Structures are given as structure tokens and as C-alpha cells.
Amino acid sequence: MAAKGYCTVDDVEGFLARTFTAAQEMQCETLIESVEIYIDEETDRAWLTGAQTDEAHYNPTCELYLRYAPVASVTAVTGRSGLGEDEEALVVDEDYEVRNLTTGLIHLVYPGNYDRVLVDYTPVATVPADLKQAVIELVAAWLQPHLQPGSYGLDSYSLPDLTVRFARSHVQEITPPNVRRIIDRYRYPVHA
After folding, report:
1. How far apart are CA 74 and CA 104, in angstroms?
2. CB of 114 closer than 8 Å to CB of 157
3. Strand order of the sheet with strand 52-58?
4. Which of 60, 144, 187, 192 is the most buried (most CB within 10 A)?
């Protein structure tokens, strides 16, 4: 699977203020893909996904949230009254209302009429700046053991007796605290 484009190798190089070798660039590209998947799983959403067709919401309540918010536009909403019934096109401002494009909130006027609602929409095609920065920082953190393998886990180094102490406590955390704060900001509660 190719990276979606949350950040680039150049972004990570700029953050670390260094130029990568060809092997380091390949490793960085692989880590970018992994971090994108990790961010998507942690936030239970995704960015740069393209138009979404027939996103299903079963037994909807008055409010339903689209999976890939923020949303640029909602193009169609259909509902069925029961299993085996035909889909019925819902009319905007009569049957439903798009309340908030940022959170992907759609309000159904008569949710009890439908056992399933399908929504076609287009998510916003950009990655928020702070999320892009989180991806860059996380890739850089995961890349450190490959850039400086001799210092991986090194906690202190002192002279003249040459005391070296290794402690993995600061590298065991999979996500740096700043990145964790950004991810937490993009977590949405699960909406049924």
C-alpha cells in the first residue's frame, strides 16, 4: 500500500535538519505509510480518502455522524424502511439537514422511518496542519533507531570513567506526548 500523503520524506528531513541516504529515504517512506495507518486507527477516521459512496448507518437516530469528517459536501442521502424494501431518496431540508460539515453531523427529521440510511459525500481533501506535524514527528521518532543505531536507548554518557547507561524508558513510548495530544484532539466518540 502506498502512502496517502499526510507528509513527505522532505518534511521529515526538514524536521530532523538532515539529508537522508537512499536507504534512509526508503525506510522513511515505509514509516510514513505505517504512521498513516496508525493515526487512522487511533482516531478511527481517515483523511485524503476521496468521495464516499453508500456509507451505511443502521437503525439511525436523529443525529448521524459521517465517518470521514470534515466534509466538503453531501451529495445524496437514501433510506429504506425495512429489509427488502427499495431505497428512497431523501430530500435535503425536508427529510434531513446537514447540520455541521466540520463534524459530519446530519440530522434526520424522521429517523424511525428508516432501518438503514446510505450517504454519499466528499470529505475535505486536506490534512489538518497539526495532524501533518504529528505524522512528521512520529515518523521522525520511529526513524531515530535507524539513523543512530549505536545510540538507541542511550540515556546518559559520562566521562572520565566512561560510564554509559542504557535505559529504554524514553524510547518505549510508541507515541511522543505532543503527538498523543494531537491524536487525542481528533478522536471522535463512537456514534451508533
Report:
1. 9
2. no
3. 52-58, 116-123, 71-80, 88-89
4. 60
Q: What is the DSSP string of 92-160?
A: BTTTEEEEETTTTEEEES-GGG-SEEEEEEEE-SS--HHHHHHHHHHHHHHHHHHH-GGGTTEEEEETT
pLDDT on residue 103: 86
Q: Please state the φ and ψ torsions of residue 4, each to the nearest 5 degrees.
A: -80, -30
Distances (CA, A) of 43 to 31, 102, 146, 181: 18, 15, 27, 12
Write out pLDDT tens, residues 33-71: 999 999 888 887 778 888 899 999 998 889 999 988 889
Amino acid of residue 84: G
- Domain residue limits, the chain: 9-46+126-186, 52-123
Measured distance CA(111)–CA(113) in Å, rounded = 5
Q: What is the residue type of 49?
A: T
